Predict the 3D structure of the following.
Amino acid sequence: MKDHDWSMFCKRINVSCSIADAYHAWSTRSGLEKWFLRKAEFKSKSGALRKPEEPLQIGDTYEWMWYGWSDDVVEHGEVLDANGKDFFRFSFGKAGIVSIKITSEHGETITELKQDNIPQDEESKIKFHLGCLEGWTFYLANLKSILQGGLDLRNKNLKIGQIINA
């Protein structure tokens, strides 16, 4: 694994939906809360709280909480790019930068997630490279399930921990 690039990873998934629907799932509070987070609160540069269906904008800051985790597990970051159609990018705490690119390929909508700028120390390799890679793999599968009219696969029981879907 000496030649492995621990500073980034990229995952892709095909989803049977429109590019607009996939972008909405990433770029609104309501969209993110359907498949990813239990709380996705965004504030504009002026400090105004974004409404659930309001598109996120560059410079918005966020506070995120997950199902299966207590209220003291909170992620803060910033929207770095949001083009309103097929590209979304945000800071992801100490874990680096996450970019979402949505394209069409052979008649399918493809969501590509790239996490880069991951720190290179040994703890970050495990926590942010391997840990986030596992987490994003699950959440991308849940995104596909939700957008294709399927089940929400997240664990919503705080009493059950250390499982892949929380």
Notes: The chain has one domain: 9-147. The chain has a mean pLDDT of 96.
